[in-house]
Automatic annotation (TrEMBL):
Domain Peptidase S1 as annotated: residue spans: 99-343
Organism: Nezara viridula (Southern green stink bug)
GO BP terms in the entry: proteolysis
UniProt keyword list: Disulfide bond, Signal
Protein name: Peptidase S1 domain-containing protein
Amino acid sequence: MLFVREITFALVGFCCFVSSVQHCFCIDYNNCTTRNGTVSKNSTEESPQCPEEKVTCCNVSTEEPSVTDSKYLQDGIQEPKASPGEGCGRKRFSTQMNITKDEKPSSKTLFYGEVPWVVAILDKNLNLRCSGTLIYPKVVLTAAHCLSRERSISNLFIRAGYYAPGVTNKPQSSQLRRPHKLVYHSGYDEKNFTNDIAIIILDQPMLLNAMVDVICTPEEGKEFIATECILSGFGSYSKNGSLLSIIKKINYTYKSQEYCLKEMKTTGSLQFYHKSNICGLSDEEDGARNGDGGGPLFCPLKDDPNKMVQIGIVSWQAHSKGKVPTAFTSVKHHLPWLRKYITELS
């Protein structure tokens, strides 16, 4: 199955306010430059609890984790263009090169701002816990298994608009928020991943722009293109012998329930496949990875291919040789639950 484990971003940085939003990171004291801010020991509740050998450092000019790796583009980064139309899930189009300098980028290769609804769910030290999706400016959709053992919401951060480590000259900064409330489906069973769905209500809404946006949820009577779906998240994958913790995408095909049941039986995982699940098959050899849990499976609508709708949440995947389907929590199946809680909380 697809179990989520912590994947650490390369480096961490500072704690300060940018546009009334606090950004907090831990860093070695000697690496903290203070020309735009101040150094603070672990003295405020707002700051993450840094290890003793690290401090909280404020420096507006180094907002995000960074690495000394030349494979990420540093020149000519521009905002993507949204497709014509208003509302959720508007497809983005690139105005520059891809995220990396690969001569032959794979289907995983993203351009800056391509999936503006995908967020990273981080622990108090800004290590990756899971992926999630922004469905309202103040509401994140994710998998219950990502957070079911979380005892305190003060241990979590949500980051939107993140691109890749080492990219510092972006036209828009990423946004960091704290959870206000976590809501799990009452029918979630951690033993078999039934009703593996949760929502995070943020302490303040994300500011929507070219790089941060909300995705659509399914609507009755609206069909999607099953062969053009995308899984996106922060899961790691191997490339040239190294592991990357950057946002990525994988092309997926949505499969019928008949196909899913047959394949799950073949892999010996049928007992975990519930009516609240859907499944999809990656167009490549590898599918979902650690860190993708909670991320979206989204597809273009047939009557408006530039509008993306989230049909699934990454839940689990059987361990088996060859290509095996990934099990997703069905968003459509849980729409009544989603609407009930979002209405109550709003």
